[in-house]
Structure formats: C-alpha cells, structure tokens
Amino acid sequence: MLAGMSVACAVPARATPHHPPAAAQAAPQPQPDYDGLPDACLTHVITVPLLTNSGSPIIPATFNGVNGLAYISITQGRVGVYARTPTDFPVQAPVDIQTIAGSGTTYTTVLHDLRISNGAAQDVPALLEGMRIPQIGNQDVLGVIGYDILSNYNVLLDFPARRMILFLTADTPDCAPGLDWLGAGSTSVIMLPDATGRLTGLLMQVGDRPVRMEIEPGADFSSLSRRTAREIGLTKTILHDDMNVRTNAGKILNGHRHHFDNITIGSWHDLPLDANIEKTSYNVLGMNFLRRRRILISFPQGMLFMTPQQNMPDDRGQATHGLLSTRTAVARMVDTPPPAPDSTPAAGAAPALPASPTQ
C-alpha cells in the first residue's frame, strides 16, 4: 500500500498587544471531485491522470527518484521495472513467470522508492522487465504498476475523464461500492481468482459458452486462446475468412481477428466484441472493450462495476501501444519460494505501509 505524503501547514501570525485580531477566517478549500463517488465514504485517496486516449493507460510515476511513466496492469503480480544498466536494480533470485505468450524466467529485485501522485512506498518487491527503457514521446517508461499495489485499493479507471483514483472506503455498510456509484446502465460482475488467488478475471459468455477473461488494460486488444476458440466452436474454416493479425508479446503471435455479436457480461447481453484468436496462455479482455468506460474494480469486495461506453469526440487522439502489442509481455509469477518463519509478507505482496491522503 502507498503511504500518503503530507504538506506543512502555515503558522498563524502573532497577535498585536493592543488590537487583538478578529478570528482567523480559514481560506475556502476546493471540494475534491471524485467523479460522482460519495466523498464522505472515501479515505486514503490517490488521484493520478491517465495520459493516453484509446490506448493502454499510462500514468506519471517516480521510481527511485527518477520521474517518468508507468503502465497499469491487473494481471502482473509484482511491480515491474526497466533498467538502463545492470547496476540500476539489485538482481536477486530467478523466478518462473507466465506470460500471455508462454512461460519464461526473470529475476526478482526491489524498488527502493515508488511514488504515485501523493502516495509513496518503500522497498517494494519487483520484477526485472528488461535492460531497455521504452519511451513514449520523449518520456521514459520506468515500469509497470501491478496487482500487488492495485489490489490494496478500490481502483476507478475513468477513461472518459482520463484519470485513475485509488481509494479505500469507510467501514460502514452504506459505504460499500455498488452499481449506484457509477450510474444508470452500469453492470457488475464477480472477480475470479487465478491459480495464485489474485482476483484478475471475470466470467464472459460467448453465446451459451462460459469463458474466463483476464481484465488487462495493458492489452490494446482483446484475445482468445486457440484452445478457447475451439471450445466455443470456431473452426479453422471460420477463422480462415477473418483478418490476419500479429501481436508482439515478447515473441510474435500470429492469428486472426474475429467479430462476435453474442457476448454476455454481467447484465449486458448481445454485446459486440472483436478479439484476436492466437496461440496464447490465457484470454484477455483488453482496451478495445474497456476504453471509453468508467471501470471500478473493488478488490476488497471482489467485484467489478462498469458503465457503457461513452462518446468521446477526441478518442482517436494520441494513444500508446500496450504491453501486449508492441512491448514486453505482462509477467505473472507462477513459482515463488515459501516465506521463511516470522518473515515479512510473502513475495508478491504489497508493502504494508499505512496510507493517508495529502493534507
């Protein structure tokens, strides 16, 4: 969890001996705008802009005192870091990972100082993503903010307003996130755990066939594995008529793009969805479905709420390519050593630091 940073308060002026001043009038403070969320219920709020349009979301972040950008990923277990030189981060133990393109190995490390807006965390367990710093425009992409940080919060990805809000709620029944927090036409789904217990997926239906999908804003496009495609009845003959696609997810994935018009998610029926059919390890619900929506992931509740897509006149502006289209694959840890007795939290867990909003 990220610990909030505080700001020093001004010291009131001393009263004169003969003319005591009138009671000080506090300067009016601007009311926080949380996009319709109930202000009285929110605690430990961290607000950060989303710096992209229809592409995968990028946020400003500071890694070890260096300002830059970071991707947001639900399926990546730990924070990921890019290194310029072999000495930027300490290389610790090798670890097996599962990416959408298959299995692999990387190394654990530690990010000594992570800052996102008014939140900060120290000595964050991390994964090495590679020895190259990607760039968007003229800014460096420092890494990936993963599940270990995000899952401590309720996460609002407000794509129309282009901002992300991380928050906790007051411990009262009236402050449990619900459909009414997002407005009319919204739907809700139960978040499903993966093999490690992380709440990263949801159940989607294609016709009458249930399909598990991983929620991944780090993917530009939704995708289904070839195995899933066969299970729901997509034959090679059907896919032969679909457009050919190539995805760079650490290695090149060749496939076809198929259009569905019989998708059910929550209370929504007969939704359209375009998805790449590729040789992947799991299925992904990506930004072509998520964009232009307000998506509230309540990790404490294990629920996801989202709105219908909204019209955005400048939606076709500058957009980044996500982790699963042009850069490294999202990494999911699949083999971590057991914690030692009386040790700190297990590998992959967020640092247990108190969070508080900026005063």
From TrEMBL:
Source organism, top-level taxon: Bacteria
Which residues does UniProt assign to the signal peptide?
A: none
SUPFAM superfamilies (alphabetical):
Acid proteases (SSF50630)
Q: Where is the composition biased (Low complexity)?
A: 343-359
Q: Which Pfam families match?
A: gag-asp_proteas (PF13975)
Where are the stretches annotated Disordered?
334-359
Q: Which InterPro entries match?
A: Peptidase_aspartic_dom_sf
Q: What is this protein called?
A: Aspartyl protease
* Phylogenetic placement of the source organism: Bacteria, Pseudomonadati, Pseudomonadota, Alphaproteobacteria, Acetobacterales
